[in-house]
Amino acid sequence: MIALLAFWSHALAALLFAALLVWQLRHGARSVEQRLLLAGLLLTAIWTWLLAIVPGSMLIDHAETARNLLWIALLYALSGAGREASERLRGVGLVYAAVAAVLGLQLVADTLAVVVAPGRGTETLHLTAALLRVTAAAGALVLVHNLYGQAAPASRSSIRLVTLALALTWFYDLNLYTLAHLHVADQALAAARGGAIALTVPLFALGGQWREGWQLRLSRAATFQSLSLLAICSYFALMAILATALGGSGEWWTRALAVALLAAMTMAALVLLPSPRARGWLRVKVAKHLFEHRYDYRTEWLRFAGTLGRSGAEAPPLSERIVKAFAEILEAPAGLLLTADEAGQVEVAARWNWAGRLPALGAPAPLRALWSALAGEGRVLEFDAHRHGWGHPSDLALPVPPALLEDQALWTGIPLVHGERLVGLVLLAAPDSRRPLDWEDFDLLRTAGRQAASSLAEAHGQQALMNAQRFEEFNRRFAFILHDIKNLVSQLSLLTRNAERHADNPEFRADMIATLQGSVGKMNELLARLSPQARAADSRPMANFSLLPLLTSAIAAKRRAHEIRLLGQATAEVVGDPAALEQALAHLLQNAVDASPADHPVTVRVLAGPGGVSIEIADRGCGMDGEFIRSRLFQPFASTKLGGFGIGAFEARALVRGMGGELGVDSQPGGGTRFTIHLPAAQAAEHRKSA
Question: Counting C-beta atoms within 10 Å of the first and last residue's C-beta, which end of the chain has fewer, N or C?
Answer without folding.
Answer: C
